[in-house]
Amino acid sequence: MMDNISVIIMFTLSGLSGTNSYRVILFALTLLCYCLIWLVNLTIIVTVIVDKKLHEPMYIFLCNLCINGLYGTAGFYPKFLMDLLSTTHVISYAGCLLQGFVLHSSACAEFSLLVLMSYDRYVAICRPLVYHSVMTKQRVCVFVFFAWLIPIYLVFMGTVTTSRLRLCGSHIPKIYCVNWLIGKLACSVSIANVAIPAFNYTFYFGHLFFIIWSYVFLIRTCLKSKEKRTKFMQTCVPHLFCLLTFFVCLLFDLLYMRFSSKQLEQSTQNFMAIEFLFIPPMINPVIYGLKLTQIRNRILPFLTSLD
User: Fold this and answer.
1) Which residue among 6, 137, 250, 307 sits deepest, i.e. has the most Cβ atoms within 10 Å of its Cβ?
2) Could you tell me if 155 and 75 are in contact, meaning their C-beta atoms sit under 8 angstroms apart?
3) Are the C-beta atoms of 1 and 96 separated by less than 8 Å?
4) What is the pLDDT of residues 120-160, one digit of tens each?
């Protein structure tokens, strides 16, 4: 795998060691899971695109959230399914960087889209009189554009920095690649490789504080009005649930990467690693599809017509 300590052409992924005895069952379950993720997300995406009545900020943001769910899972499931059918679990250097880029940028884009959704709910409930003048179609398009562009740019810069590292190893103790684990294989510490992730973490912690700030105002406003409480329950509760699900899953993965214990069984480590690639992409469209009346009223007639 290495000609010398600075030339790495392949990485080994050790997360699937010990799964040979049940890899066929695991493959079938994973494939089923991936198909369900595509089904539920594609249902929301097509419903929002086709129905012009749903061309409103909240539904546009939801549509992009589902697109991002498909984008992020595409960086993991196809490679994971191939690994389950293979006896050797390796990934090329370029493939590892690409996978890390897709997973990182998807996680960051999800955070950005959830922030936009919280801002949309804040304006809709706390400042309803100016909602249509603030959330114009042009402004929503700009918001969505930057919600994709900024994460992709920030993660791209991190990936470029990682690609310039001189590596002294090729073993990744996980079932997929992330930049942080590649960086741990570096022969020496790079200032840029520390500064860029630090900036990215700070930037997205700022997102978290903005969400908390918006919900403080939302809850304050809703306590004063029964009508606004009803609106909060209908539109903010699914968003809050999706936000907490994503944050908890991502937190588990980050804690696992940095403080993982060898005492944990490999299957437990793998579950902690894929939570944010399984639960949010599956749960988000289901929760919104069931809770948001306009989407539910468009999906249920179609489903009943199939009976």
Assistant:
1) 250
2) no
3) no
4) 989 988 888 899 999 999 999 999 999 999 999 999 999 99
